[in-house]
């Protein structure tokens, strides 16, 4: 395994008086072992045994050098240190505006969407998908994302490719307001093909206990505010790939009139990151709960924040899914119930908000460039979520 880029305390301590004393600095290669040869041992030109096994430490070092600038841009004031050590450090003493802080954590990956990035040889957007998956699972409880780590497994470390992935992760962290404090790149020759990789990440955030969102706050009369997705986001790609590649035999460079782009370009549209907008929504309104619409679709994910004595009814006629969803439906002859149980169908996040706050909620989200609308309401019931009506044109 090739070490990634965890944080190493730097020589200059942070200005915050409460920050811990830091150990002396060390080089970025501190994690690589120093091997001493026995006296009199013959020095040969034999290639490094680890390199012969398929692990290229020099390539990993090159990747670290290429990604440093991007990682630095994601810093928060609470971060301590730079690249090269074993762990990332975050000064929690700076979080002073909490009486009863709760830490929240989330971990996820982007699934088989990485196959599209690999085929397109375009790797600088998959990081947005990764960050979106983890931070938006976090903010639904009202937690502010603080920091994140990532893990990249690959058959062969190609420095430019790894750096492009981390560039996207770092840029997305900036958009989400969290720091990228560390990560790991693991080279798995023989397990993954040289051009194959997978990515995963974990994030930690904080929320004041009294402001925790969830099913315990949802009330009858709340409205369901839907937030538009950028596209497929990062779920359902096994179905999508089956429809377009296996059933239809399409190539990624196929120009699709309905999409106004190539198939590959549409399938790589980055996941929308709702974190800052959702936190602003929680501050501006009395929002009771939120749900991140990922695997399982709209109804299943909304049901996760419904109390057992209430139900939600949503009207499909309030929105039209983007063309990519209709294309999957038609090209693959996929029944609508299967689509709704797999894809987000154009809704990436929902909020359950008091009816009096609707105008403020929609205006707040619009300020972040997010189109939102009232899709349904909460009524007495049994914890179920029902979709009625039909999308225009379907």
Automatic annotation (TrEMBL):
Record-linked SUPFAM superfamilies: PurM C-terminal domain-like, PurM N-terminal domain-like
Question: Signal sequence: where?
Answer: none
| Principal location listed in the UniProt entry | cytoplasm
- Highest lineage ranks of the organism? Bacteria, Bacillati, Actinomycetota, Actinomycetes, Propionibacteriales
Where does the record place a coiled coil?
none
What's an example of a GO molecular-function annotation for this chain?
ATP binding
InterPro entries, sorted: PurM-like_C_dom, PurM-like_C_sf, PurM-like_N, PurM-like_N_sf, PurM_cligase
Arranged from A to Z, the UniProt key words for this protein are: ATP-binding, Cytoplasm, Ligase, Nucleotide-binding, Purine biosynthesis
The GO cellular component terms are:
cytosol
Per its record, the protein catalyses: 2-formamido-N(1)-(5-O-phospho-beta-D-ribosyl)acetamidine + ATP = 5-amino-1-(5-phospho-beta-D-ribosyl)imidazole + ADP + phosphate + H(+)
Top-level taxon of origin: Bacteria
Instruction: Report the record's Gene Ontology biological process terms.
Output: 'de novo' IMP biosynthetic process; adenine biosynthetic process
Pathway as given in its UniProt record: Purine metabolism; IMP biosynthesis via de novo pathway; 5-amino-1-(5-phospho-D-ribosyl)imidazole from N(2)-formyl-N(1)-(5-phospho-D-ribosyl)glycinamide: step 2/2
Cellular localisation: Cytoplasm
Give the UniProt family note. Answer: Belongs to the AIR synthase family.
EC number, UniProt record: 6.3.3.1
Instruction: Give all residue intervals belonging to the PurM-like C-terminal domain.
Output: 219-384
Q: What is this protein called?
A: Phosphoribosylformylglycinamidine cyclo-ligase
Domain PurM-like N-terminal, by residue range, is: 102-207
PANTHER family from the UniProt entry: TRIFUNCTIONAL PURINE BIOSYNTHETIC PROTEIN ADENOSINE-3, TRIFUNCTIONAL PURINE BIOSYNTHETIC PROTEIN ADENOSINE-3-RELATED
Q: Which gene encodes it?
A: purM
Q: Which Pfam families match?
A: AIRS, AIRS_C
Q: Where is this region: Disordered?
A: 1-32
């Amino acid at each position: 395994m090739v070490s990634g880029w965890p944080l190493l305390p730097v020589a200059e301590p942070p200005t915050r008086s409460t920050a811990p004393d830091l150990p002396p600095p060390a080089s970025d290669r501190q994690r690589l072992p120093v091997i001493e040869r026995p006296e009199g041992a013959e020095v040969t030109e034999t290639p490094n045994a680890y390199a012969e096994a398929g692990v290229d430490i020099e390539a990993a070092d090159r990747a670290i050098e290429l990604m440093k600038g991007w990682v630095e841009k994601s810093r928060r004031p609470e971060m301590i240190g730079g690249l090269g050590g074993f762990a990332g450090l975050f000064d929690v003493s700076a979080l002073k505006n909490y009486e009863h802080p709760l830490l929240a954590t989330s971990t996820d990956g982007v699934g088989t969407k990485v196959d599209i990035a690999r085929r397109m040889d375009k790797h600088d957007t998959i990081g947005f998908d990764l960050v979106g998956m983890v931070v938006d699972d976090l903010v639904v409880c009202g937690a502010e994302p603080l920091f994140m780590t990532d893990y990249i497994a690959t058959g062969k470390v190609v420095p430019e490719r790894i750096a492009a992935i981390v560039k996207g992760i770092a840029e997305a962290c900036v958009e989400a307001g969290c720091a990228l404090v560390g990560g790991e790149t693991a080279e798995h020759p023989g397990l993954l093909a040289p051009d194959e990789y997978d990515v995963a990440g974990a994030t930690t955030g904080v929320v004041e206990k009294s402001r925790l969102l969830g099913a315990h706050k949802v009330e009858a009369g709340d409205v369901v505010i839907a937030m538009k997705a950028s596209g497929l986001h990062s779920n359902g790609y096994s179905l999508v790939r089956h429809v377009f590649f296996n059933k239809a035999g399409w190539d990624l460079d196929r120009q699709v009139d309905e999409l106004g782009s190539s198939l590959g370009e549409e399938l790589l549209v980055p996941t929308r990151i709702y974190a800052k907008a959702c936190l602003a929504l929680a501050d501006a309104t009395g929002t009771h709960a939120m749900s991140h619409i990922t695997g399982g679709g709209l109804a299943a994910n909304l049901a996760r924040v419904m109390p057992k004595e209430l139900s939600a009814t949503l009207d499909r006629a309030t929105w039209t899914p983007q063309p990519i969803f209709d294309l999957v439906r038609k090209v693959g002859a996929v029944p609508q119930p299967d689509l709704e149980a797999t894809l987000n169908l154009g809704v990436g996040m929902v909020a359950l908000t008091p009816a009096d706050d609707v105008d403020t909620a929609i205006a707040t989200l619009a300020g972040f460039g997010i189109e939102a609308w009232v899709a349904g309401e909460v009524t007495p019931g049994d914890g179920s979520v029902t979709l009625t009506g039909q999308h225009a044109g379907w």
